[in-house]
Write a structure and sequence with these properties.
Helix content is 27%, strand content 19%. The chain is an alpha/beta fold. Among the domains are: 99 residues, Rossmann fold; 100 residues, ANL, C-terminal domain (GMP Synthetase, Chain A, domain 3), CATH 3.30.300. A three-stranded parallel beta sheet has the order 1-2-3. A three-stranded mixed beta sheet has the order 10-11-12.
Amino acid sequence: MAGAVLSALNIKLDASTLAVILQKLEAKFIFVDYEYVDVILKSLELLPKTMAKRALLVLIQKLDQATTPVENDLAAGTSNSFKYSDLLEMGETDFEVVKLKNDGDPISVGFTSGSTGEPKGVLYSNRAAYLKSLASIKQYDMGFPRCFYGRWTCFGATDGCCTWAMAARGPVVLNMIADAPSSERKPLPCKVHLTVAGVLPMSQAMETLSMQLLSLQRSLLGDLVIEEVEVKEPETMKIVQRDGKTIGEVMFRGNTLSVGGAIISTLEVEAVLLRHPKVMEAAFVGKLDEHLKVKPCAFVKLKEGYGAISCEEIVKFCQGQLPDFMVPQTVVFGELPVNSTGKVQKF
């Protein structure tokens, strides 16, 4: 309505990555929830001073709470700021809506999380968002009088234009619902239709929730021709005989890891681990926990002459240089298996 281009940011990113995105955006207004003021202030400190001064911060306060410590931090960080409630009171009743001149003009810009380099932006035009919204309404049968309840971050919803059509949530929430104690479960009065994206939902959670999978679509499938591919026995990880009879599983190697729907560059995490003064070698992989969820795990070999260090020390070291979802949750110390060329065997 005001002619501005929207950009929803990933709240899980660290200050340095957010600073790169803000610099690319040249943001004029930054709407920030009270829970994320600290990371925004840190990211603004990393920007050129002229650019940081141009950004006007709008604080979205906690409901039913007049003053918070976060507001004091905001005031200390920049004087160019407003409270969201005060901004609403400044609205003018005779405001003229900025009409669209070209449906090809951008309505929003989304950014990658920088897992394979600097964050990259993708523009969404008004026409594309409009057409995709209509398609979503048809695809998900969003007819009256249905009610839609959204549990999805805005930066993720923008990818599918769901901010204009509907709201959805990934399978992580489904797993939480399926694993809830029986004392907290409540029967639903009607059938509930779910739109699941990001991560493949666990079959156990689907069975617990009595879900019927009507349609499963996959995207971003890589070309197996250009990848290192083998057919292996899943338990022994040995290559099966090429006799046309022996059954195995197709496995291909890559340098990325998917955790909770977020793509992590293992090379980037390993580079950070190797910056630690006591680390000689490092490998970063995914580890299944008791709920069969992939958790980031680091294998570390220490340099000779250094005493033992704790897992907490490695985790704390990474927290200052990586987004939270990329920080290893488990650290294993010891020798790393390598092949004849010195490459770490990640299996």
